[in-house]
Amino acid sequence: MSKRPYFNYSFVNFTFVKSTFVMLLFILLTLNVSAAATKHSSAKIKFLVGNVKLLPKGKIHWRTAHFNDRIFQGDRIRTELNARVELAMPDGSVIKINENSVFDVKEIKTPKVEHADKMSFTLWVGSIFAKFQKIVQKRQSRIIESPSAVVAVRGTQFELQVDRDQTTTVRVYEGRVSFRSKQAPGEVFVSSNQESKVEKGKPPLPPKPFKPKGGGSMGALPKGQLLKINLSKFQFTDPVLLTAGLPLRGRTIPGARIMANGIPMNVGSSGIFTGRIPVTEGLNIIKVTAEYKGKRQKQIVRVLVNTFKPKIKLARPLTNMFTNRRDYSLSGAVFDRTPGDRVKLYINDELVTEVTGQGSFNRTIILKEGKNTIRVVAEDLSGNRTVHVEQIFLDTVKPILTVTEPAQPVYVRFEPPRPPNEHTPFAQERFKQVIRGIVIDPQPSSGIKRVLVNGQEIRPNNDGSFEATIFLKRAAAGRRSENRLSFIVEDMAGNILRDNSRVIIIQ
Question: Fewest beta carbons within 10 Å, which of 91, 381, 384, 407?
Answer without folding.
Answer: 407
